[in-house]
Amino acid sequence: MISRQKFRDLLGSRTLLLDGGYGTSFFEMGLGGVPSEQLNLEHPDRVEELHAAYVEAGADILLSNTFGGNRFKLEENALEGKIKEIHRAAIEIARRASDRADREVLVFGDISSTGRLPRPSGDGTFEDCRRVYAEQAALLIEAGCDGIIVETITDIKEMKAALVAVREVSGEVPLIAQMAFDEAGATLTGASVEVFAALANDLDVDVLGMNCLVGPAEMMENLRRLAACTDRHLSVEPNAGDPIFDGTRTTYPTGPAELATYAEEFVERGASIIGGCCGTGPAHIRALAAALRGVVPAGKRPRDVRIPVRLTSRTTCFDLGTASEPDKKNKKFCVVGERINPTGRKQLRETMRAGDWSVMLEEAGAQAREGADVLDVNFGVEKFFEPDAVTDAFVVLDRATALPLSIDVQTIELMERAMAEYPGRPLVNSSACDEASLSKKLPLLKKYGGVMILLAMDTEIPHTAEERIAVVERAMAYAEKMGLSRDRFVVDPLVMSHGAGYDHRVTLETVQLCAARGWRTTMGLSNLSHGMPNRSGTNAAFLTQAIELGLDSAIMNPGDHVVMETLYGAMLLATGSLDEAIAGEELDPLVEALLSGRTKVVDAMVDERLAAGTPPIEVSQDFLGGAMETVGLLYEHKKIFLPHILYAAETAFPVFDRLNAMMTGSGATRGRVMLATVEGDIHDIGKNIVGTVIRAGGFEVLDVGKNVAASEIVARARDYKPDIVGLSAMMTTTVGRVAEVAKALDEAGIPTAVISGGASMNAELAKLFGVLYSENSSGAVALCKGIVG
Fold first, then answer.
1. Chain centroid to CA 660
2. How does DSSP assign 262-279, residue by residue?
3. Fewest C-beta in 10 Å: which of 155, 350, 491, 596?
4. What is the pLDDT of residues 182-204, one digit of tens each?
């Protein structure tokens, strides 16, 4: 294994070339039809041949043939019993090829998606993913890799699990993290380039990058965005454009010469590592090597990066400013909603303890509408909550709100569970500054990422502002020794009840002293007026004074209109501009209720229609179904993402079932649709989304799974008698199976329409195969409605 320092030195001195695609190259070599990892055992000479071709072309880093080598992926092909053998062989094969070179060529162990996305994007768990990735990382390191790359990840929580797992196995192995972003800079499950960087910056990664999904032109803009929010070395592996399948052969439009024209600009934008993904081969790497001769590497070009101090959810960011200098004139005050806290609130307390999150979700949605930027999540008396309940709460909130969260949990076991589960960079509320507290909580911050609130106290509350500053300074120094920079913290100057005799001026002076040091601050605003009359007015007056002295944030009630209106006025005077919380696109109330999981609201709106005499079929297909079609369109236009559409469907389907139970006869549904991913293709996320939206459109849906042979599809269609069969083909190597299934259905005399979709399908192929085609889920619904009339 190469040391991390030596690897960084290499990146600082020259541009390193990764190899190119493996799956598409193996197919060109006539090795398609079997899992690539199986080739390590059955055709090691051919795998070595491809590795050697990349070395000869100029690659400085070879990736082991273990892209789909994690236990979950191997189980899909009954190869899990050979997992150790596969990984040992993969590293040995790559090492033999690297040893042929007259220069140092590194071998990095390749890790990618488990295929079982953690909740809420899939039905896996963070712990499932962490465990599987730790096993694979250990096998690769034991086999002798020089470093590890985690690539082609589309879910931010899965990426987090992989990075945490690798670092649990080894703190010394060089580590590259690459996500797959579309042309808009978002992953399938909604994480943006900025969300990725904010989290990965915290997780002890050497290189951040991107690969797959798009060609070099589209990747260039995503690289620019990534370079603006990280100081790590950067890597890119574009596809050779979008695949083109003519019915017999798949080709990619971006040839070696064209790809090479982007090489210098990639370096200028900050890339220290450049390679290729799908459709690229040794000729592409050779062209890149030639284009980069004489080009000054990114490591020798100074990058003036002002990394934002950023809180994130899965899909959104809230910036507290930059690490180097808080921007007081352009900052936006951070309102942390305080109301997910069961203390003194019987209904919220009882429902949360029972695992009923409905009241919690109502509070989350209400605070978002009232102007909160972040939501504080507090469980009250934590002894009443098991770790799994904490996990469930954060999974539900991940689906229901786009706002970043504040993890207000103190029990170490529960805090770790919440921090592990969170799919972004949270605010962690909080730690006192005594060493006993810091020694337990800071390792979690370092392991899982986030920004932590430091209470300006140790075991006692200091009486003066200077004493509070001294306490925080000692805590900051302690954190720095653990490798945590000062921008990972926000200081709480401590607000106590004025009615109990505490002097609020000490808090204000502490805010001022923190601002002078560039420390960001927050406070529990409502503590000030506890037990006093005119709480709103008192809180508002104090908030105005604190903002004038530099306060950045407050944990407060966004539903208090007096306080919020005062806040907006104070920010106008402090910054010269009025930047109120900007609500997103105004949604139909039913759509909003579906997206926020407000089942009771959905039920009430449906009951209102029924009570007005609207027939159940119209309520189902036009009212509720229409709302779900809108949800589908929001997904297609990237206004929402995979967890959100699945949550809306989970909210809607019990109501659909209730309405269907009121109907009798053939009119209860529009028709029957049977879905399958064709043989050889194990991708099913797209199919699942289509099934969700079609069912919401009023159809009965049977999903027969992924990697389904034509003969089984025919047999299931004969029994189910669908009006429509929907086929998904994501891979260029399996897209021809669509024609095979269509022919088999026709020959079996099954009277059904066939629709198709997936990344490798297009309208031209569909016409060639004699089937219908839709490029997205909303189009699939329209096709189905047109077919049944």
1. 35
2. THHHHHHTTEEEE---TT
3. 350
4. 999 999 999 999 999 999 999 99
